Amino acid sequence: MKSFWERRIARAEELSIVCVAAAELLSLYVRLAIFQKSVFEDLAARRETDPATLTTYFPQLFDLVDRYGPPAAAGFARQNLGSEAERDRIVLTHWNDPSTGDYCERFFARVLLQPFAESLAARANVPADTSSGACPFCGAHPVAAVLRGEGDGGKRFLVCSLCSTEWEFRRILCPGCGEEHKDKLPVYVTKTFDYIRIESCDTCQTYVKSIDLTKNGLAIPIVDELASVSLNVWAEEHGYTKIEPNLLGL
Length: 250
Known about the structure:
250 residues, alpha/beta, 8 helices, 44% helix
């Protein structure tokens, strides 16, 4: 059976062929996920709990980004991440507050902190908190939502942007501000991605993309969320801001 990293990589490779508009993004994600998989396996084997150890992976990550990554991120690394002290600062700052910093800082921190956080969450007893819009394990915001079939309907789960923990969350409730009036929580769908909904809030003007697994059981939420980047453009053109950007800052 494939690991969840292998499933993500395979799904991204598959979608890069059919989602032409997102092919470049998905190809970069595949390379990053392969790197993250190796970091995760190393951390899990050592049962590592100290985020400061992540700085040892920076040289490999720099090489990867320099060859395949966003030019802005590569330039940022050359100018700002030459010292071990600065690498430590970025990792530890983002571990304590995942939403802080600019795009480039967040990018490097997230690439390393995601496998670290996932390795910790895999060993933890994560509470099934259904009342908060923040992850019950690490406190980060959700990168996507998921609808899973149950009985005659479906349950909604949020997917953490950092540790990938899923937790049950009410369907008629904004994870950003707690708005619960259905008329202020419009849902938008398109023919292009008929299994992905834009769940928005007119109170705080935010949105989260929700992957409906009852319509497409092959979807991998964090990968399909990235592949449907065209929906981000539509949502932002209509005045909504994503609750939390994905790994590539989108």
